[in-house]
Every structure is written in C-alpha cells, then in structure tokens.
Design brief:
The structure holds two protein chains of two kinds. Chain A has two helices and six strands. Chain A is of the alpha+beta class. The radius of gyration of chain A is 12 Å and the shape is globular. Chain A starts with a strand and ends with a strand. Chain B starts with a helix and ends in a 5-residue tail after the last helix. In chain B, a hairpin with a 2-residue loop joins strand 3 and strand 4. Chain B folds into two domains: about 170 residues, 3-Layer(aba) Sandwich (Rossmann fold); about 400 residues, no CATH class. Chain B contains 31 helices and ten strands. Helices cover about 60% and strands about 5% of the residues of chain B. Chain B is elongated and about 90 Å long. The chains are: A alpha+beta, B alpha/beta. Chains A and B meet through helix 1, strand 4 and strand 5 of A and helix 4, helix 12, helix 13, helix 17 and strand 10 of B. Strand 5 of chain A pairs antiparallel with strand 10 of chain B, so a sheet runs across the interface.
C-alpha cells in the first residue's frame, strides 16, 4: 500500500483506503474531510482503479474511467493505493 | 398547534400532488428540472433545445447562475429549469445546495438527468440520488456518439429496467435524440404516477435500519415531515444531514441513535460514508451490468494533446501563446467594425437627429444634447461592442473547447505561490472581458478567503471597458506599436496582481491555500451556435450597460459640462470645475489638466466613459460641410463601409496589405489629445486608468457577493493608491530617463 501521490506517470493503482485526520489538527482535518467527500463524489473512492497521468508540482492529474481529475498532491498523499 | 395544522395541510398537498400533476396533461405548464454532472454536456443540451429563448438570471440569494427557458413542444408548454452542474446532492458546495433545495422545495414535475455516457459510473451516482426524490426522471444518455466511437456498448434497455426510468441516447453537439427526449418527457408528464422511479435497495442492513427509523417517524408524527419526499427524508435523517435536521428543527436524535448504532458499528464508519458507499455500489453495480468496454483502451486525442499542453516546460509558454492569440484575433477582427460603427454614429446618425429635430423647432441646446450628449456618448461606447463581443467569443471558445480548465491546471503552481487556488485563474481571466462577471465567477471557489482575495485582484485585470481608453491613446501616440503597448498594460495588470496577492497573503489573508480539485473535460469542438449563445449571454451585460446606464450618464455629463447655463468655456462648467480642483493631484503624474481629471471623475461610473467624456470635452466644432448627403446616400454609404470593414478584418487577420484610408472618426479627438499629452504622460494616464478604483458596477458586485461593503472599500482604497503610485513611478522615472519629450 503506497500513497497515490508517489505513483509515476503512466502507473495504475487500486484505491484501498483514504486516510483522514490521523495526525492533523481539527481545523485541517475538517478541510481534509470536506475535500475527501468532494473527491469521492467525483468517483475517486475505495475500490476504483486510477491511472496517474501526470505527477509533478503541487497538483497531480489522474484518470478515473474516462475523466481526468486534477487534485492537490496533499490530498493525493492521503489516498492509499495498491499497484 | 399551528405547526400541526400546517403539517396536515402540507401532507394533503403531497397527496394531491399527483392529481395536480395530471392536470398538466390538460395544458398546464410542465416544469422540467435539468440535472447532471459538470461536463456532461448539460449546458450544450439546454442550448440546443432552447437556444436564444434561454433566460439567464441568478438563484435567489446566491450568485449561482440560473438558466430557464419556456418552450412549446407538440402544443405543450414546457418550462425548463437548468440546475447547476453537480457531482452529488451532498450539501457541500453552493451549487449542490441550490440544486438540492430546488428539487426538494419546488418539486418540479419531472427531472431530465443528463448523463455522460463515457463516464457512466460517476454520473449514475448522481442519478441514484435523484431517484430518491420521488420525482419521475427521464435520462438523457448524452455524449452517446462519443461512447459508441470508443467502442462502448451500453444496454440502454437494461438501465431502463433496472432504474425504472426512460432512457434516451442523445448527442447535444450533433443535436440527435432531442425529439425522442421530448417525447419521453411528454409521455412521463402525461402519466406522472406511472413514471415514479423504482425504489432502489441500499443493502439489507441499511434497509432494515431504514425500516426502524421509518417506524419511529410514524410514531412521532414529526412536524413538516410532509414537506419532503418520504424516502429522501428518511435517508437524509439516517445520514444525519445537518441541513435537514436544522430545517426540521430536530436536535435530538435518540431514536436515530438506536436504529443506526448497529450499522455504524458493523461498518466502522460514519453514516454519511456508509450511505455514500451504498449509493456508489449501486451505481457501479449497474454500470457493470449495462456497460461493455473494449478490451484495449486507445490513447485518446485528449491525452495526446494534454501531453503537450500540460508539459512541465511547454505548459506556460503555450498558455501565454494562447492568450496572445486571443488578443490578436480579438483586436484584428473587431477593429474595422468598431471603426464602422464609429463612422456611422459620427456621420449619418447625427445628421439624421438634426434633420429630425430642427424642423420640429427644437432649440439648439436640445439638438446639442442629443448629438453631443446622447449620440456622441453612447456612440463612443458602442464603438467597442465589436471588440468586447469578439473577446467574449474567444473566451467562450477557450471554455467550451476544454482549454480553460487546463489553463487553471497549468497556472495552479503560479497561483498557489500568491496564495490563490488554480481555479482563481478563471475569474481573473474573465476579468479581462469585464470585471463584473469575473467577480461573480469567484463563486466557483469554495473557500471564502479565496473568494475575497480573488475578487480583490480581479479588477487589476484590464477589462474590456478600459480598452476604449487605450485604443484612443495608442492610436494618437503609439500608432506603430499599438498591440505591444496595449499588451504591456495587460501584463502590468497581471504582474501587479501577483505583487498585491503576495502582499495580501502576508497581511490580510494568512494561512494555507485550500486544495485543488478540478475535472479537466475532454477537448471538444464547441458548436458555433452554442458559442454564439454564450457569447451573447456574456456580452449583453456590456451592451445593456451601454444602452441604459451609460445613456443616463452621458446625459448627466452633458449637463455637467453645459451647466451653469450659458457657460462659454467647458472649463467653467461644473465638471470642468471639479476637474480643475482635482487636477493638481495628477500634476506629478504628468496629466494635471482639468480635462483629464474630469474624464477620470466621470470614469468612476464605468471606465469606458473616460473616452466618452473626453470626446465631449474635445468635441469638434461643427464644420458645416457644403453638401449634406441624402438619406439614400447615407444608407448606401453605411452598407458599403460595412463591406469594406469585413474585407479589412479578413485581410488584417492574414497579414494582407490593407490600403490606407483616411479615418475620419476620432481624428479630431486624437489631434486634441496630441496637443495635451506627451507619449510618456499618455502612458502614465493609461496605467492610471488601468489601476484606479473599480467601476461602480464592479463595486456593487463585490458588495453583493460578500454581503458587506468592507471588501469593496478595501479594493477601492488600495487600487487608487496603487494607481497613483504606479503612474507616478512611470512618469517621473520616464522623465528622468529622458522619455519625457
């Protein structure tokens, strides 16, 4: 299990878990939870496989089905995947 | 007691709903809400159906755009209400809340759910939520042509059977399936009761708990519960949805706790996640059943283009190139038409006005008011309609093609460094057209801090209204490198926005920037008709402003310029006096004359008025021409010069030589300006116009968007200070370096 944020471009992974608020303060945690819900609403959720299209900079670009979704690396590091 | 009564009434209302709905068949207006994911082609579909009949407004209380259209199909009246694009109905973004409140409180007769056939699973997630509402749903399986081209096989009947809704494959871009969609809508409208969606089973344990909660609800006879669809209410209560609990005035959830405790424990999660997972498994199970994808996925065009456009090294140069092209196309194509409108208002319109008024015995001052006030004022603004519409057209093209989202992605890093979200880029970009929609566009940002900071920086983007000022000055002082000078002003606005962003981030808006999440839609060629509709929607703000607001201001300015009565010299008029009072402030900036100061004062209303006022101050003395052309000659000349303008636009675009012609319009204003300004002071003046306080409309927009004057005032003060300092540095620095001549 590795964070989604460290997959290289072209690599695929299946989402296993979305880690939330284990180490953060409550304010950061609230924001993370809200972000996590939005990310899940867009189809990035446990069980789905995603492909890393572009990794570099503060934002990573993923492919989920036929949609391309850009998310902050900070969020991508909370999403655990299995290669 | 009264709540009890109300509750009863509303219960009856819900029961009576179906009867009322059946009357629909006899000619009542059928209300159809259109719901769907962002990028599902929903707005293209609406445009294809409604075209120019679309009425664009705002949802009450919020600044989310609301589109509506009244149409008739097969003799039946249909009211389409476009809901904001959402991925879900969970109440986390303003769009989601608006969509959900509308569906729950207004209860449309029907929902048309636009589903992207190439992204079934995610789109069906929203569908599942829509089906909870107990409103008949007709599904438009959109982008069906692309799904087929990809080799997807979708079992349309399978979806119909499993969800109990009518499914119609459509392609909004090719306008196919729209007839069938309407037929299905009418069929459902004729028999609403027979088209109620099937109840989806969310899993044994959830349904068992739901049964228990439903029992409790029946016992408790909660007030207001009749207001909501039963299934939906039940599920929302189980999710412990804060909005619903608040609306139902429920704070004690003991009975819920009992029923849900077991579920929570078994899943080891909160109820919201459990329910979301249940919905999502339904969506994904359904997708597995009905969708066959080809084994091998082809690398798509979108991905190929993205490899280049989002490349680490090429991304930003490509973006800058795209912006340059945007401006080049805008100006080259529109300039001849602007000239044509200018010539028309200067010549024939004024002549016609005189010809109409003088025989009626109108006094000279009335003729002057109409000609020098109304026609000259509004005319000098109308000249810029082509520029603004051309720019809106190309911005719409960037949006519709999918590049705009890439621009936000590419710019995220840069934006992040000034404490902004990559998405803040879009309001900024819109700000180039007009700051007002730019400020309203900040609503796409979730974080209030981002919104305010972005809205404060948007006015630094040089809007279309400032362009008229540049164009006049540039043609007078920098005729040979006009594009470069104008471009430099745009760039200066951007650089100062970066600078101010950094400053604000360190002072007023400390703290971490929120996280970027954004979908990059596939590249598509937007259809010409939808481009036109959207261009019109954006451009009409300007047009109506020119038509009404600026009309009134032109008259006001004329009076200020011509009062007190019998004023001989414009300098002695009220506006001139005010200008003379303020002028010394502008002395160190190189334009300490009353003309410039008066224009700047009137420009607070809207920046394009700076030119209008100057036009009036320097209005040419009427030189009586020997021969006055007849109406017929005038009309002929208008048509001929329009043809010439088209010809010129095409030629400039392809760098073909354009025969120099003597431009009559504005030459008098240009000459007058050349006598008052130097190239350096004209540049300082343009910088000042770029930066000084946002126009009244923009200020009003900020007030409306944030519900307080605070930020509008902050913007006003900092910008005016910035403008003065920047113009000072340019003028004094330039003089020092010897550019003063």
């Amino acid at each position: 299990m590795i964070p989604l944020g460290i997959l290289g471009a072209g690599e695929c992974g299946e989402i296993v878990e979305i880690l939330l608020g284990k180490t953060e303060t409550s304010a950061v945690r609230g924001e993370l939870e809200k972000t996590a819900i939005r990310v899940e609403d867009m189809g990035i959720r446990v069980g789905r496989s995603v492909e890393m299209l572009k990794n570099g900079g503060g934002t990573v670009l993923l492919r989920v089905d036929e949609s391309r979704i850009a998310i902050a690396r900070r969020m991508a590091m909370k999403i655990m995947v299995r290669r | 007691m009264s709540t009890q009564l109300k509750c009863k009434e509303s219960l009856e209302e819900t029961e009576g709903n179906i009867d009322a709905a059946q009357q629909t068949a006899q000619g009542r207006v059928i209300t159809v809400a259109v719901a769907g994911n962002p990028n599902s082609g929903k707005s293209t579909l609406i445009n294809a159906i409604a075209g120019t009949r679309l009425h664009v407004g705002n949802w009450a209380g919020v600044t989310v755009e609301k589109k509506e259209a009244q149409l008739e199909y097969a003799g039946r009246k249909i009211r389409l209400v476009d809901l904001p694009g959402t991925y879900s109905l969970s109440p986390y973004t303003q769009e989601e809340i608006v969509a959900r409140d509308y569906l729950v409180n207004e209860r449309p007769d029907l929902i048309v759910n636009v589903v992207d056939a190439t992204n079934l699973e995610r789109n069906l997630y929203l569908t599942v939520q829509l089906l909870e509402l107990g409103i008949p749903v007709v599904m438009a399986l959109n982008i069906y042509d692309e799904a087929q081209a990809k080799g997807y096989e979708i079992d349309v009947e399978g979806i119909e059977k499993m969800l109990g809704v009518a499914v119609v494959p459509t392609s909004a871009t090719k306008k196919t399936g729209l007839d069938e969609l309407f037929k299905s809508v009418l069929a459902a409208a004729d028999d609403l009761a027979g088209h109620m969606p099937r109840k989806l089973i969310y899993g044994e344990d959830i349904e068992a708990a739901a049964e228990q909660v439903a029992d409790e609800l029946r016992h408790r006879n909660l007030p207001l519960s009749g207001r909501y669809p039963q299934r939906w209410l039940l599920l929302k209560l189980m999710e412990e949805d804060s909005h619903v609990l608040e609306q139902m005035k429920l704070d004690r959830l003991d009975f819920l706790y009992q029923a849900l405790h077991h579920l929570k424990k078994a899943h080891g999660d909160d109820m919201e996640s459990i329910m979301a997972d249940a919905r999502y498994s339904l969506a994904s199970g359904l997708t597995r059943e009905v969708l066959q994808k080809p084994e091998l996925r082809q690398m798509e065009l979108t991905e190929k283009i993205d490899r280049i456009v989002l490349n680490r090294f090429l991304g930003i140069p490509i973006f800058l190139g795209a912006m340059w092209l945007l401006f080049k196309l805008t100006f080259d194509l529109s300039a001849p038409f602007g000239g044509w409108i200018g010539a028309m208002t200067e010549g024939p319109f004024k002549r016609w006005a005189s010809a109409l008024l003088l025989p009626l015995g109108a006094p000279d001052w009335t003729v002057s008011l109409v000609n020098d006030g109304v026609i000259a004022g509004v005319g000098s603004v109308l000249v810029f309609v082509p520029v603004i519409f051309a720019m809106m057209f190309f911005i719409t093209f960037l949006e519709g093609s999918g590049y705009m989202a890439r621009a936000a992605f590419v710019m995220d890093r840069t934006m992040h460094s000034i404490g902004l979200h990559g998405k803040s880029f879009i309001p900024m970009l819109l700000g180039f057209g007009c700051n007002v929609p730019g400020i309203y566009a900040t609503r796409t940002l979730e974080n209030p801090k981002d919104k305010v900071l972005t809205a404060l920086l948007v006015p630094l983007m040089s809007c279309g209204a400032r362009l008229p000022v540049y164009v006049v000055f540039v043609s007078a002082f920098f005729p040979n490198n006009s594009s470069t000078v104008i471009w430099s002003l745009y760039v200066m606005g951007i650089l100062l926005a970066v600078l101010m962003g950094l400053l604000f981030k360190r002072t007023l808006f400390r703290g971490e920037a929120p996280m970027f999440i954004m979908e990059l839609p596939p590249y598509r060629m937007p259809s010409f008709s939808s481009l036109c509709v959207h261009t019109w929607e954006k451009g009409k703000h300007f047009l109506f402003k020119a038509g009404t607001y600026i009309f009134a201001v032109s008259i006001l300015v004329w009076f200020l310029l011509n009062l007190p009565w019998g004023v001989q010299h414009k300098r002695d008029s009220y506006l001139g006096q005010a200008g003379a009072v303020v002028a010394p402030v502008f002395q160190p900036l190189g334009f300490g004359n009353w003309e410039a100061a008066s224009s700047l004062i009137s420009g607070v209303i809207a920046k394009e008025i700076v030119v209008g006022t100057m036009g009036e101050i320097y209005a040419p003395q009427k030189d009586e021409k020997g021969e006055v052309p007849t109406l017929k000659e005038d009309l002929k000349e208008i048509a001929v010069s329009f043809g010439a303008a088209c010809n010129k636009a095409v030629k400039t675009l392809f760098y073909l030589p354009v025969p120099e012609e003597k431009e009559k319009d504005r030459s008098s204003l240009r000459h007058a300006l050349q006598g008052v300004f130097t190239p350096l002071s004209s540049y300082a003046f343009m910088v000042f116009v770029l930066l000084y306080m946002p126009c009244v409309v923009a200020i009003a927009a900020m007030r409306q968007e944030f519900g307080t004057w605070k930020w509008a005032v902050v913007g006003l003060v900092y910008q005016t200070m910035l403008a003065w300092s920047a113009a000072l540095i340019i003028y004094q620095g330039g003089s020092f370096l010897g550019f003063g001549g």
